[in-house]
Amino acid sequence: MTTQTTPEAADITALREALVNTLRQQGDIRSDRVADAFRAVPRHIFAPQASLAEAYADDAVITKTNDRGHPLSSVSAPWVQARMLELSGLGPGMRALELGSGGYNAALLAEVVGENGEVVSVDIDPEVTDRASRLLAQTGYNDRVTVRCTDGTYGAGEPAPDGGFDAIVVTAQAPDIPPAWTAQLARSGRLVVPLSFRGIHQVFSFAHEDGHLVSRGQTRCGFVGMQGDNRHGGHAIDLSDGDLRLGLNDDQQADGAALRTALASGQRSTIWTGVALRGNEGVLPSLDLWLVSTLSPCARVYASSRGVERGLSGWTIAAAATWEGGTLAYLTIRPEADGFELGVHAYGPDREGLAARLADRIRAWDDGGYRGTVEPVARVYPAGTPDDQLAPGQVIDNRYSRLVIALS
Ligand SMILES: C[S@@+](CC[C@H](N)C(=O)[O-])C[C@H]1O[C@@H](n2cnc3c(N)ncnc32)[C@H](O)[C@@H]1O
Predict the structure, then answer these.
(1) Which atom of ligand 1 is nearest to the CA of 64?
(2) How many domains does the chain have?
(3) Which of 64, 323, 334, 362 has its CA 20 to 30 A from that of 142?
(4) Mean pLDDT score, 279-307
């Protein structure tokens, strides 16, 4: 007997196959197991508000926003889901915990771990868990995925299976690694988490090593922010009538009054580095990671469009900054023939010295051949670990953990 496929079913199969091909070509999918998962799960069912083309595009579909229009929940972009699945090291029969639900990624996880595996998917938002449960039932994954409404800061919300989860996949931007994540991770497991530090968003895959976690792989991507007890802290200092702000982590301080006075004086040193930034080269993330791994203190300034009009900065992109007392130096750009040139603006009593130091760092990144190739090692120690037990690197002190970032 032959089965007739409706044109729509054929379209959907073709769209899904095209997505797999794109993700393979981009290097996001590396294994047949992950490719088969993307082939099997009907992404459009988990994104009913999107057209078929949108559901199978390599882009996120926003499913919930707050009253200011900021995304609270989404079906994440396929490329990052594929990379995170690859980073998780999951395979048949393994146990996975997803923190930040929606349904689609949980179904992908269920495909990867197979009939003998186990998937727990939790979300802090009951609207999201209700929706995920309904869509997982509609697609037949409800007996392979356990959905729970709880604050993922504390892990699975119930005791982890004996021996822990083989992978914990966090799908909201986390500022910190709470103890439950380390405790619920199997000895040989992987914690895949989009981590924010010093204004940078980087997905790391962590493994246990000698009482702490060490990164074994990474990729660059931003997610919607975590809510609950592991939500983002940090604070911003207004430096010039709201047109230039310095964003700091909770373990950083700066003398806002002195820096505002420096900006208000209008006295500035600028150094153009001779280092080019070309069109679509996409090297800024590598410069950001290099600076955060080698420069202390390091944070980011944010210029508004009016700040750019006022000449405070050449761009509205978050720019690496360093400071000392009442002196601040930060990255800027100016257009040149086929792209931009990186430079440094500095205000304050030691503006020439600090501008020169930051400009030297930028040239060292360029001369050292780091364009596009920076993958720092991140280590996570429990809060309170003494300094002499930390690996060398830049230390970021969070509420639950001490994060150490180093070039190798
Ligand atoms: C990008 S969405 C998840 C996407 C989903 N994994 C998918 O299938 O594509 C991020 C989710 O994290 C959830 N979330 C934020 N903070 C959380 C927390 N502390 N615990 C659990 N879930 C949280 C949000 O409610 C949101 O639904």
Answers:
(1) 27
(2) 2
(3) 64
(4) 89
